[in-house]
Amino acid sequence: MELISLLHSSPLLFIGLVFAVGLLVGSFLNVVIYRLPVMMEREWQDQCAELNGKEALNNESFNLNVPRSRCPNCNHQITALENVPVLSYLVLGGKCSQCKTGISLRYPLIEAFTGLLSGIIAWQFGFDWACLGALLLTWSLIALSFIDIDHQLLPDSITLPLLWLGITFNLSATYTDLHSSVVGALAGYLSLWLVFHAFKLVTGKEGMGYGDFKLLAALGAWLGWVLLPSIILLSSLVGAFIGISLMVLRQHQRDIPIPFGPYLAAAGWIALVWGHDINTAYLSWISA
């Protein structure tokens, strides 16, 4: 109880603690981002083998807990001291302690990024249940974004629980009222579903994946239908700008699809933190 009172009365201490927790969660998210798509692929392979009357292809356990993380080059098992977020990377000089093979800079960047966004959430929401929910949403959006970047995939195992979790938090109107939450989930899904089928009818091509529908539905469940236009507009503008820039700089071929999930996630997070301020400023501007 004393610790709770201390965290409640000391915002800086609370923000610092959440930042540290965010670093640790970022380390776990690195595992999720790499392993979850592999786990899904193995499950699909086993299901196909079962349908064909064959034995499962993957008999070894592979999940978020096992096997222990290892160096892909020398198979050295990563120790606890070598897995301290950001700090271990700096101490090791960005290299494996055994074979000296370089470690991707992406790992500490995701850890630091998760810590930073977690600290911003703590600063914005304070010591409250709304902060816990916002942290869960933030961490999920980070994992979804990087999985989509790597595999153009938004796993149902994250998006669907996220949708129901948003509705659960809004049973007590944590971020919006329950009616707005349910309508937001429906409108979020159907809006992109309609865009998808209209685009396919006109061009004969699929412009996005079903995971994008589910992600926007989840954001609608968390934030309500009122913020959906801001999320769609912001994500579309950012996505168009980055996509055109990559093509102009010839860093991305036109026939290679660009994942939309990261832009939805970024827009959703901005709406979570500053969405109502943005809407208020916009309404004041157009009525001036």
| Straight-line distance between termini | 49 Å
Q: Compute the average pLDDT.
A: 88
- Computed over alpha carbons, the radius of gyration is 21 Å
Shape: globular
Order of helices and strands: HHHHHHHHHH
- The residue ranges in which pLDDT falls below 50 over 5 or more consecutive positions are none
Number of strands: 0
**Helices and strands: which structural class?**
mainly alpha
- Put simply, the count of helices is 10
What proportion of the residues form beta strands (DSSP E)?
under 5%
Sheet bearing the most strands, described?
Answer: none
Helix content: 55-70%
Can you walk me through this structure?
The protein has helices spanning 2-9, 11-51, 87-91, 106-125, 129-151, 156-169, 178-203, 210-223, 228-248, 261-287. It is mainly α and 288 residues long. The radius of gyration is 21 Å and the shape is globular. The mean pLDDT is 88.
Short description:
With 288 residues, the protein is mainly α.
Topology:
Blueprint lengths: L1 H8 L1 H41 L35 H5 L14 H20 L3 H23 L4 H14 L8 H26 L6 H14 L4 H21 L12 H27 L1
Comma- or semicolon-separated keywords:
single chain, 10 helices, globular, mainly alpha, 288 residues
